[in-house]
Structure formats: C-alpha cells, structure tokens
Amino acid sequence: MIEAVSLTRLYGAHAAVEGVTFSVGQGEVLGLLGPNGAGKTTILKILSTQIVPTSGQARVMGADVLKEPDRVRALIGYLPEVLPLYDQMEVEEYLSFVAEARGLRGAQAKKRMDFVREALSLEYVWHHPIAYLSKGYRQRVGLAQAIVHDPPVLILDEPTTGLDPLQVLEIRDLIRQMAREKAVIFSSHILSEVEAVSDRIAILNQGHLVAQGSLRQLARAAGWRRIFRLRAKERLREALEALPGLEPVSETQDQKGLWTYRALADDKIRIEEVLETLKDRGLNLLEFCEEHPGLEEIFIALVRESHGAG
Ligand SMILES: Nc1ncnc2c1ncn2[C@@H]1O[C@H](COP(=O)(O)OP(=O)(O)OP(=O)(O)O)[C@@H](O)[C@H]1O
C-alpha cells in the first residue's frame, strides 16, 4: 500500500532523509521513531505530496508521488505536524467542508460526520469556533479531518501530540482499530506509543534508516538479546562500564537506598564474568535477573551504534 525506495531529500547540501527504503502493507501500522531532526516529518511530507523527493521513489497504492500527486492525495488521510485548520470556522462546519471537498455527500457524509464526532469525542465542541479550541481538541479535529473520508492509507505525524493521557489511549485504540483494513504510517517521539501501536517499527537517525522490523527483529538486529538487572547497596555502573558485551541503560536508587543497574547484554557475556568483576571490586550483589529488552533499550543501542558508525 505504501512503498518508499531509496528516498532522499536534500536541503542544500544537508540530507534530511537519505536512501530510505520501506513498505507498509494493508492491515499494518508502521511507526517511525527517531530523535529530533531524524527525518520523520520529511518522509511523511513526501508521502503526502507536500514536498518532493530529491531522488528515489514513493508510491501509495501504486500511484507515484511525483507523477500522480492528485491520485495519491485522493487515497490518503494526512495529519500534518502543523494542523490545517480554519480558525474562523466552527468544528462541524469545517469537517463538513472537508468531507464535501473529499467528495462525500448526503447520507454518506452524515454517517462519516457522526463517526468522527463520536470516535474523537467532539460532541462538546461540535459548534465551537476552531479558534477557541484547546490544543487537545485542535489535535482531535486534525485527526477527524484526516479520517473523515475513510481513506485506505493514513499518514499521521505525531498523532497524540497535546492529548491528555486518556485521550492518548483512545486515539491509540482508534488507530489500531482503523489499521485492520488500512495501511497506517505514523511518527512519534514516544517509545511506549510506538511499541504499543506499531506492527513494525522503523528507527531513523540523522536521515538514515537505522533498522526496521518488529520489536523482536530489532532486538536481534541490535545484537542485544537480554537485559541484566542487578541490585546492590552500592552503585555498580562504574565497576561494570568497562566490561565488554554490556551496554548501560539506567541506574536508579530506590527509597531504601538500594541501587538498580540495568544493562543490555550481548550473547557472549556470562553472568559469572559480571559476578567476578563485582567481587574483585568488593561489591556485593543483592539480586540479579534477566529481562527481555523493550523498545527503549533497543532504541538507545541502535542510535548509539549508528552514531558510532557515522
Ligand atoms: N525546510 C527546511 N529547510 C532546511 N532544512 C530542513 C527543512 N525541513 C527540515 N529540515 C531539516 O531536515 C532534518 C529533518 O527534519 P524533520 O523535520 O524531518 O525531522 P523529524 O524527525 O520530524 O524531527 P522532529 O521530531 O523534531 O519533528 C532536520 O535536520 C531539519 O533541520
């Protein structure tokens, strides 16, 4: 449904996106994750025909963004970073204007208007001018305009920005629900969100695709299979930092004053080596356990690795 091949976008000599290749199938959600300036918005702008790629190709259901931008626009629902709202209009007026522009009429238009009003909890502000809406409501109206015409492809730039925690959960559910028969690509800074909503994750850093796949595939790509969690009365980070095969993730102190140190562990490192190192330094371990790495740990490792490589 969405295909990008060697996508590159230059701003002067600076590559905002370089050589990025990915695809999104029907019924699939691809989450774009990356630090500030990684190139997420640039990719979504190319897919939605807001800007053109310098080289490479992008297609939506076979329609090329350069050759058939109108066809692409008809197939997508797009939530941009900067919302396309008309402040002087009321919510209902604006959404019915969008629905009409998208070709919806009569009963079909009414059905879709009812759907977005309910799905995005817009009842309370339905007749309010957009200029008076809070940030969260503006974002919901932005989402409503992206989905009102029930497009087969959704392109969402930071869809939960400005929403309260309950709304965040509702919007995530809505995206998952809509994804059953659509292809969805979205960007987010929030790791837990990308983890919760995506079938596959594409990690970007400085315009490059660092890795993509399911969480399990990403963990494998990063070469980190396990997390070692160690508890002690003293800090452990310094003692273990030099040990090859361990990548520190966090060190925290609880209310009782005990320290918990978490590190990614590769396949080669053995817990005996860790214990010996601690013994040599006169440190006593209170607890040890192994966990599966989550997206946060994998993301840290992959982005650090790509900085090292770059
Ligand atoms: N119009 C522009 N002119 C020049 N440089 C730009 C322009 N738009 C984006 N860039 C640069 O391209 C790079 C990628 O930007 P982009 O907005 O795609 O990143 P992002 O991953 O969406 O970041 P954020 O999470 O901060 O929104 C950045 O270095 C940015 O400064």
From TrEMBL:
One term of GO molecular function: ATP hydrolysis activity
Q: From the record, what ranges are coiled-coil? A: none
Q: Which InterPro entries does the entry mention?
A: AAA+_ATPase, ABC_transporter-like_ATP-bd, ABC_transporter_ATP-binding, P-loop_NTPase
Give the superkingdom in one word. Bacteria
- Keywords on record: ATP-binding, Nodulation, Nucleotide-binding, Transport
Q: Which family does this protein fall into?
A: Belongs to the ABC transporter superfamily.
Q: Which PANTHER family match?
A: ABC TRANSPORTER ATP-BINDING PROTEIN, ABC TRANSPORTER ATP-BINDING PROTEIN NATA
What is the protein's name according to its record? ATP-binding cassette domain-containing protein
Q: Whose protein is this, by species?
A: Thermosulfuriphilus ammonigenes
> Upper lineage ranks?
Bacteria, Pseudomonadati, Thermodesulfobacteriota, Thermodesulfobacteria, Thermodesulfobacteriales
